[in-house]
Design brief:
The chain is an alpha/beta fold. The chain has one domain: 3-Layer(aba) Sandwich (Ribose 5-phosphate Isomerase B, Chain: A). The chain is built from 6 helices and 5 strands. The chain has a 5-stranded parallel β-sheet, with helices on both faces. Helix 4 runs parallel beside helix 5. It binds D-ribose. D-ribose (RB5) binds next to helix 3.
Length: 154
């Protein structure tokens, strides 16, 4: 699988660990930076870059890390077509695939231990989208990317 990875400085070490793990497993990894834990950078730049590469089809999956995984997920989710999920463990990783068909998986370098993160990414990759009742909801998410707006309930 072609996988794009990106992080800010706070997620740098976890990004490096996950990128090496994914490459060892035979995936083609495109590293969009950042390149250091020492230089402070802004997570929106890297989340948006990963999202853009996935949305364009240059990668099938994105892996993003920052301090918590949250900011970089917010950035990735600004890109139409992206469903970025913050996961914390095997269960949230599995459900992000089964129910949400996440195409970007985000984790926190300051909040998730390294073994848990490795187990979570393996669980994510080993799981398929369940479709069924979840497909309608994914389609609804896609409509939010378009000009159609979600109805406001009275
Ligand atoms: C950087 O200090 C930190 O705020 C950032 O990595 C992230 O946790 C934001 O969501």
């Amino acid at each position: 699988m072609r996988i794009a990875v990106g992080s800010d400085h706070a997620g740098y070490e976890l990004k490096e660990l996950l990128a090496a793990h994914l490459a060892d497993a035979g995936h083609e990894v495109e590293d969009l930076g950042t390149d250091s834990a020492e230089i402070s950078v802004d997570y929106p730049d890297f989340g948006a870059a990963v999202g853009a590469v996935v949305a364009a089809g240059r990668a099938e999956l994105g892996v993003c890390t920052c301090g918590t995984g949250m900011g970089i997920a917010m950035a990735a989710n600004k890109i139409p077509g992206i469903r970025a999920a913050v996961v914390h463990d095997v269960t949230t990783a599995r459900l992000a695939r089964e129910h949400n068909d996440a195409n970007v998986v985000c984790m926190g370098g300051r909040t998730t231990g390294t073994q848990t993160a490795l187990d979570a990414i393996d669980a994510f990759l080993a799981t398929s989208f369940e479709a069924g009742r979840h497909l309608r909801r994914i389609d609804e998410l896609a409509r939010l990317d378009s000009e159609e707006r979600a109805p406001i309930r009275p």
